[in-house]
C-alpha cells in the first residue's frame, strides 16, 4: 500500500528541480513536506493496528490446531479458560481498529476545516 504514495512523493521531489520560478518551487516543496507529514499521520494508526492483528491470529491458530488434533471433550473443556483471553484479545483488536478508523476521520475533518 505504501509503494504508490512513496512513488508519488519521489516523483514530486524529482520534479521540484524543474521549476523555473523559485517561489513556485519553494511553495511546491512546502506542499510536498506538508503532504508527507499528513500521510505519515494517516499511516501511523494503521501500522499500530497491523501489529496487534498478528498475535491475535497466532492465538486463534493455536486454539484451532489444538481442537483439530485433540477433538474430544477434555480438549474442549481445556479451551474454556482460553475463551476469556481470546475475548480480551478481540476486544483489544477492535479498540485498536476503531482508533485506526477514528484518527484518519479526525485528520480529514481537520483538513476540511483548514480548507474553508
Protein model, in words:
The chain is an all-alpha fold and 116 residues long. The protein has one domain (3-115). It has three helices and no strands. It has helices at 3-15, 22-69, 73-115. The chain starts with a helix and ends with a helix. 0% of the residues are buried.
Mean of all residue-level pLDDT scores: 84
Number of separate strands = 0
Largest sheet: none
Residue share in helix: over 70%
Helix and strand run: HHH
Task: List the quaternary state of the chains.
Answer: single chain
N-to-C CA distance: 30 Å
Beta content: under 5%
C-alpha Rg (nearest Å)? 23 Å
Secondary-structure content class: mainly alpha
Query: Runs with pLDDT <50, length 5+?
Result: none
Tertiary shape: elongated
How many distinct folded domains? 1
List keywords for this structure.
116 residues, mainly alpha, 90% helix, elongated
Give a topology summary.
Elements: H1 3-15, H2 22-69, H3 73-115
Helix pairs in contact: 1-2, 2-3
Summarize the structure.
The protein is mainly alpha-helical.
